Amino acid sequence: VLCGATEHASVRAPAEALKGEGFEVETLRLTGGGDLDLEHLAGRLRPDTVLVAQMLVQNEFGSIYPVRDVARLVRARSPSAALHVDAIQAVGKIEVSIGALGADSLSLTAHKIHGPKGAGALVTADAALLRPLAFGGGQEHGLRPGTENVAAIAGLGAAAEIADRTRESTHAALLARREAFVRGAGRIPCARLLEPGRSVSPAIAAVLIPGAPAEVRMHHLEERGVIVSAGSACQSRRNEVSPALTALGLAAEEARCVLRFSFSRSTTLEDVSSALGALETVCRELEEARR
Amino acid sequence: VLCGATEHASVRAPAEALKGEGFEVETLRLTGGGDLDLEHLAGRLRPDTVLVAQMLVQNEFGSIYPVRDVARLVRARSPSAALHVDAIQAVGKIEVSIGALGADSLSLTAHKIHGPKGAGALVTADAALLRPLAFGGGQEHGLRPGTENVAAIAGLGAAAEIADRTRESTHAALLARREAFVRGAGRIPCARLLEPGRSVSPAIAAVLIPGAPAEVRMHHLEERGVIVSAGSACQSRRNEVSPALTALGLAAEEARCVLRFSFSRSTTLEDVSSALGALETVCRELEEARR
């Protein structure tokens, strides 16, 4: 089992759990520039590799990874391996097609495309790949039992339809918001934009601002009505350092100073400019407090 | 592992799956009168029994089972066994308390108490009993990963609060509806009310009407606006005979002729009388069609 260098906990933790079942699990690497190290991957793919997981868009800093190249390597070197792609941050922002990616399975979730929390989808090229983890009334073709979360499932369907239909206009709008944000963030002393890899998602801007933990800035920004995150929501509950930021080569103290700004199709340019204003104020105040 | 005689598929199927993991799994028995055969249970409980599952209210015909007596036997004979109670049909209709029952875990669901589909609860006497089946972002104390279905969870909480507060008045109302239904159903030729065990839930009336499969009557009733079920919703998707009805000693052809009528606190006496009217009409028409 090979696990991408910067996977979300929803992939990292199951990969870790597979070790307990006797699987050899390896974490892949990034190049110095923060892209996938395909040469390293090629060397790790074995004829008996059963599973490779590589996300499409990184959730903490937005790198868009060359999953198609990963698929080609996997097919060539590990013919019996399945390729799983976490496309949760990609859907609705960039083109996503399980066929074009060459993946076997692909995950997406409603609450990242303006749908309700609680419903997601695992798209498979071949349903026979899946085995149930729980057993019961035969719902979802016997793959996951339990009375279905009908409202959220319908919401996911509607949200996915809208996300697909508006993808190009959303992309353009996000790009304009992100560019405005990046220009403004350049004025903040010591702020460093993280843009690892060959391209980044227009929905995410990760900024490293040394001098205070990201959580502190996050709370100060929240008081000003600006909601950002420090690492992913799933990691921020614990005090651990983001493994994805660590994989970029950041030291623990740097990784703790990374804020993630996200843009959606409902973010306005005014929102961007007030977020920038709040960020400048928070940085100035924290700087003054330190003196 | 001991599995109650008439458990829902949500318990029966996992018990079956445990066989594949090497557990010895036995299904318990009912007495001739349709109550739990506690003598048989006592004989099957071993010092190395790890799990006993016994539902509180049967979902297809409403028997209320003496779970407290089961708990006493389990504690006395299998001190290391956990007792799981499916209380899904009981909550809001009769008193349910994990402590009073002497159970280790108890399941309930929102959509049986007028809450939204998609949220349920597994109540435990000791959370240490549980181990996760899936791994990820650490939600739900690490027991079940994934962004929570917030709306449905809030709905479950609200529904449970209302179900608890109105339980006694609901019980009285259901009892009156069921009694009216039972009186009326007595007028239908050949209809036989199933009331196995020492007492039945006021929310359920199971009626065996020979001469046509329950599904046929179900569809005819549906056309007249009366929604009933043939077996449990989870079983009715397949063509199998209800194992719970079989456990009552019914022959397969009898089991296929059992209709379940359910009453809720929003069922009116007028609903009951129009359901009875529709049932009489459907039975008469089917009888005429057979001649």
Question: Any overview of this molecule?
Answer:
- The structure is a homodimer of 291-residue chains.
- Chain A has 291 residues and is an alpha/beta fold.
- Chain A has helices at residues 9-20, 38-44, 67-77, 98-101, 150-165, 167-185, 214-223, 243-247, 252-255, 269-290, and strands at residues 2-3, 26-27, 51-53, 82-86, 105-109, 120-124, 192-194, 204-208, 258-262.
- In chain A, strands 2-1-3-4-5-6 form a 6-stranded mixed beta sheet, with helices on both faces. Chain A has a 3-stranded antiparallel beta sheet with strand order 7-8-9.
- The radius of gyration of chain A is 20 Å and the shape is globular.
- The N and C termini of chain A lie far apart (50 Å).
- Chains A and B meet through helix 1 and helix 5 of A and helix 1, helix 5 and helix 8 of B.
Helix content of chain A: 25-40%
The biggest beta sheet of chain A is recorded as: 6 strands, mixed
Alpha-beta content class of chain A: alpha/beta
Counted beta strands of chain A: 9
Shape verdict of chain A? globular
Roughly how many Å is the radius of gyration of chain A?
20 Å
Q: Report the uncertain regions of chain A.
A: none
Please give a handful of descriptors for the protein shown.
three-stranded antiparallel beta sheet, homodimer, 10 helices, alpha/beta, 9 strands
